[in-house]
Amino acid sequence: MTSEVNIVLAGVGGQGTLVAGKLLGQAAILQGLDVKVSEVHGMAQRGGSVITYVRMGEKVFSPVIEAGTADYILAFEELEAMRWSGLLRRGGVLLVNRQQIQPVTVATGQAEYPPRIPDELKQRLDGRGTVHSLDARGLAEQAGSTRAVNVVMAGALSVFLGWNDAMIEQSIDQVFPEKYRRLNHAAFKAGSDIIKSILTQALS
């Protein structure tokens, strides 16, 4: 990898976007890359919008990803995919977890959750990027815990980055306590496997 790669992880408080960012960052460091990871809170509470920027390359100076420059967006929730889709560059990839978490305004009846988000996303992007949807929560549950959605999404992204599996396994061991490693190895593999399957079906 010689050029910079810009990754946005978008979710809500409690979904672990920063942990996923640290996992990706650690994997990049093991491959000799410079990495910047930063987190931005829309609301500093569980359920509020949270994004994590991960920038990696031979030399990275700023942690911020500007509009239209993200190579990859990992949306841990459908509404967050809509909220941050403008960051995606032309030719970029948007990975969306098919999960809906009601924000406070919806839960209190002040607003409605937007219907048909996948269709609206494709219309909004207008061919600017590729959208892949997956049931990351279901895959995380099968791996052992719904809290592993973030690692499933990181596993899905790894297919596009073309990273060495051994590097990923080492990163998981460095980021997570021993008692959670088997779970997260399984979650990462589940995300990787489902995207490989989706891409294979798209080519057939």
Question: What would your notes on this structure say?
Answer:
It is a single chain. The chain has eight helices and six strands; from the N terminus they run βαβββαβααβαααα. It has 204 residues and is α/β, with parallel strands linked by helices. It has a six-stranded mixed beta sheet with strand order 2-3-1-4-5-6, sandwiched between helices. It has one domain: 3-Layer(aba) Sandwich (Pyruvate-ferredoxin Oxidoreductase, domain 3), CATH 3.40.920. α6 (149-161) crosses α8. It has helices at 17-30, 78-84, 104-107, 117-125, 136-143, 149-161, 165-175, 178-203; strands spanning 5-12, 34-41, 49-57, 70-75, 88-97, 129-134.
Distance linking N and C termini: 29 Å
Q: How many helical stretches?
A: 8
Oligomer: single chain
Q: What is the radius of gyration?
A: 16 Å
